[in-house]
């Protein structure tokens, strides 16, 4: 995904999915969601402790926003971190559910 420092990957099986970054050494950062009729209900964002504070969680959210725009989806933030980011980024209101 463009404009991101890390290679953010996407996977979905049924109505569950995630955006994730392989950080090496078997560690991953992820943002998980439930796909409810085209709305991604984002319920968790996690970054391993050694990688916290480096903007990785924000990269995951930005990748989700980009994906939602490109695939005509909406995002309903439930994870507190994602709720906070949506409040900070009013330019994401177009994809907020």
UniProtKB/TrEMBL annotation:
Domain N-acetyltransferase, first and last residues per copy: 11-97
Top-level division of the source organism's lineage: Bacteria
Coiled-coil ranges (or none): none
Record protein name field: N-acetyltransferase domain-containing protein
Phylogenetic placement of the source organism: Bacteria, Pseudomonadati, Pseudomonadota, Alphaproteobacteria, Hyphomicrobiales
């Amino acid at each position: 995904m463009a404009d991101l420092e890390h290679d953010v990957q996407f996977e979905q099986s049924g109505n569950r999915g995630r955006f994730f970054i392989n950080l090496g050494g078997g560690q991953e950062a992820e943002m998980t969601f439930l796909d409810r009729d085209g709305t991604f209900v984002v319920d968790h964002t996690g970054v391993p402790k050694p990688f916290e504070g480096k903007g990785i969680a924000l990269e995951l959210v930005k990748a989700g926003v980009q994906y939602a725009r490109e695939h005509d989806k909406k995002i309903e933030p439930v994870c507190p971190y994602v709720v906070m980011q949506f409040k900070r980024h009013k330019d994401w209101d177009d994809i907020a559910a």
